[in-house]
Inverse folding.
């Protein structure tokens, strides 16, 4: 078992608030990814869970037990560091066995356990080598092996793949998700790489300036971003975001921006300043009579091999369109782009929070056809 409850956790460094009153529930068996830009507080949060850094306020509860004041070595969690932190003068076998020696596990038992873990991670042939005689990928496995050797309740990993080249990183992603499945343990994994987060996480917590912007499954955060920040962080290229106004027009709720008209749903609304978002993969050439129309000029087209990206000007904004190759657009062309109304995201411009279309006459809030008012989600 390894559920971790974080309650109002905070940490200041002098005048800097690195982690600001964070609360979250990490369930047993979760692969929770802490995702966010550099400096948002990911490492600080992870180090507090590990017991390597004291919080300024709040509590950490592991399986119902308050461990806020428990020293790191007495917490039943194991940390894998970005630089692996292997002991250079010890062999792989002794590096793997280190956590067991510290805990005074009997020698035979420790040797058997090291062999077992080495088999599991396919590093049994490396047991007599020193870390400097290993490749980056092999070092990374030894670091993971040292964490799993004593069966902790939770694994804490801080950017463990960032020192690997792109190809090895992709392969290792799959190995880690496999390992997570086999061990059935709780993983808390820090990265600033959205692809790692989307492919490995059971849930993603998106951090911004020491606070949680959104926590949810990869699908939830990608399909229904809770804020402009989340919308702009996930996706490559990121979601197109345009300043727009929501208003009533001819019995429809419409969003308007220079070069953009989006009739979203039947109904009426007060005028609201919004940010309108559409993902590049949801835009396609249209004929102009669709409910959503963007008048665009194509500036350039980029070939990514399997896909192409068209960079367009709409009003005075840049709008990206992504599609399998060949994309039906050429540089210099003027055309109308369209999308389905359900692919239009709206965010309150003042708060940056998602606006959800609530239909008060129906039990479902999405999708809706006869909505009355926009409310803050
Ligand atoms: N020991 C420290 N002393 C002073 N400030 C610190 C210390 N550790 C972290 N900070 C500050 O706290 C904030 C959060 O840092 P943290 O290392 O948690 O970010 P991060 O999300 O892990 O970033 P990265 O992706 O670059 O690793 C930053 O502003 C950082 O400068
Ligand atoms: Mg960090």
């Amino acid at each position: 078992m390894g559920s971790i409850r974080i309650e109002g956790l905070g940490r200041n460094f002098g005048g800097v608030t690195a982690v600001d009153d964070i609360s979250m529930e990490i369930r047993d068996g979760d692969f929770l990814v802490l995702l966010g830009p550099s400096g948002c507080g990911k490492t600080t949060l992870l180090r507090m869970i590990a017991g390597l850094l004291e919080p300024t306020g709040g509590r950490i509860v592991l399986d119902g037990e308050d461990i806020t004041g428990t020293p790191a070595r007495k917490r039943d969690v194991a940390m894998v560091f970005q630089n692996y932190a292997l002991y250079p003068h010890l062999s792989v076998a002794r590096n793997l066995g280190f956590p067991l020696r510290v805990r005074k596990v009997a020698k035979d038992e420790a040797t058997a356990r090291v062999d077992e873990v080495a088999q599991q991670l396919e590093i049994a042939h490396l047991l007599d080598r020193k870390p400097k005689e290993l490749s980056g990928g092999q070092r990374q496995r030894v670091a993971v092996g040292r964490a799993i050797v004593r069966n902790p309740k939770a694994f804490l990993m801080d950017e463990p793949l960032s020192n690997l080249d792109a190809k090895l990183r992709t392969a290792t992603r799959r190995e880690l998700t496999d390992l997570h499945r086999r061990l059935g343990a709780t993983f808390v994994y820090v990265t600033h790489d959205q692809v790692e987060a989307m492919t490995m996480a059971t849930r993603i917590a998106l951090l911004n300036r020491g606070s949680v912007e959104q926590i949810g499954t990869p699908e939830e955060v990608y399909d229904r971003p809770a804020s402009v920040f989340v919308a702009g962080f996930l996706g490559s290229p990121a979601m197109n975001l345009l300043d727009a106004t929501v208003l009533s027009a001819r019995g429809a709720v419409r969003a308007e921006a220079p070069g953009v008209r989006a009739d979203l749903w039947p109904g009426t609304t007060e005028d609201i300043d919004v940010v309108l978002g559409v993902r590049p993969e949801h835009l396609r050439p249209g004929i102009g009579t669709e409910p959503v129309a963007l008048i665009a000029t194509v500036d350039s087209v980029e070939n990514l091999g399997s896909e192409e990206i068209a960079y367009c000007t709409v009003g005075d904004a840049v709008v990206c369109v992504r599609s399998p190759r060949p994309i039906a657009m050429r540089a210099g062309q003027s055309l109308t782009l369209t999308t389905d109304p359900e692919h239009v995201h709206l965010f309150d411009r003042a708060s940056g929070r998602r606006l959800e279309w609530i239909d008060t006459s129906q039990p479902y809030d999405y999708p809706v056809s006869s909505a009355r008012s926009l409310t803050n989600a």
Summary: The CA atoms of residues 101 and 107 lie 8 Å apart.
